[in-house]
Amino acid sequence: MEKINRRSFIQTSAASLAGFASLAAAGFANQGFTPATATVDKVKLGNSGLIVSRVAMGTGSTGGNHQSNQTRLGMSKFVQMAHHAYDRGIQFFDTADAYGSYPFVREVFKEVPREKVTLLCKITTTNNELPEKALERFRSETGSDYFDIMLLHYLLNGNWPEEKKRHIDCLSKAKQSGIIKAVGISCHNIDALRVAADEPWVDVILSRINPFQAHMDGTPAEINAILEQARKNGKGIIGMKIFGNGDKILENEREESITFALKKSSIHCMTLGLESIAQVDDAVDRVMRIAKS
């Protein structure tokens, strides 16, 4: 999950910036686009059968213990930001049990049509909760009877197909019954990624990728080669840590990161840990300007 661990995504040497006037002051007015005009387009997510927005709204910046920077905004601000993102075409929410974001998207679904949103959820595999019980809890917490994507969260070695068999079997049954549309894994290890690229069970891979090799599982060239093979195998590829876990958020770094993701990587789409309406607007305009260039 892409993390932006600053109070604001838009910065100057003096202070963080927010709002459209601040965007212009930071030099955005000279970048060839008008803020808040573009909307995110949609892409085919491999052979998963899903059509998703090119950008997902991540909900797990500095996430853990069932909270994150997004949930720490409070319900009202979270829903306002998510609704604004939806209006700008980000109709793809990246959530997880570990982030505590499921009840927050439930509130969003009271304002936007559930059927028009791609809901990605992640299940923790290292606790004692039975996966069948977890899925029922997730349905209650999200207010959704089904999940578009369910990933095994935070996998750290290449033995996951054997180690996580109980969870894999559970998700497979849920997929057969229509509760889940696509399954896959969130990778935090290059061996886990290599296995996922060729594993028939996997529909979708969430992988760390950026041009700076910041918080990645290998060099950009190594990861791209694996993701390219995964794409050839029909996997849907979602990039995360696009801004290096929030370490690369200067103007030139954001520009380089999005350019790399769109033009030089093997991903289909990306998740960004947005924390304000200003960040949503910057991300949408930047992504679509570069995508169309």
Written account of the structure:
This protein is an alpha/beta fold. 35% of the residues lie in helices and 18% in strands. The protein contains ten helices and twelve strands. The protein has helices at residues 20-25, 75-87, 102-108, 131-142, 160-163, 165-176, 190-198, 220-232, 251-263, 277-291, and strands at residues 10-11, 16-17, 42-44, 51-53, 55-58, 92-94, 118-123, 147-155, 180-187, 204-208, 236-240, 269-272. Strands 5-6-7-8-9-10-11-12 form an eight-stranded parallel beta barrel, surrounded by six helices. A two-stranded antiparallel ribbon has the order 1-2. Helix 7 (190-198) links the parallel strand 9 (180-187) and strand 10. The protein is globular, with a radius of gyration of 18 Å.
Uncertain spans, ≥5 residues at pLDDT below 50?
A: 1-34
Which structural class do you get from the secondary structure elements?
alpha/beta
Q: Estimate nothing, just give the exact number of structural domains.
A: 1
Helix content: 25-40%
Stated plainly, the CATH topology is called TIM Barrel
Radius of gyration: 18 Å
Largest sheet: 8 strands, parallel, barrel
Short description:
The protein is an alpha/beta fold and 293 residues long. It is built from ten helices and twelve strands. An eight-stranded parallel beta barrel has the order 5-6-7-8-9-10-11-12, surrounded by six helices. It has a two-stranded antiparallel ribbon with strand order 1-2. Strands 3-4 form a two-stranded antiparallel ribbon.
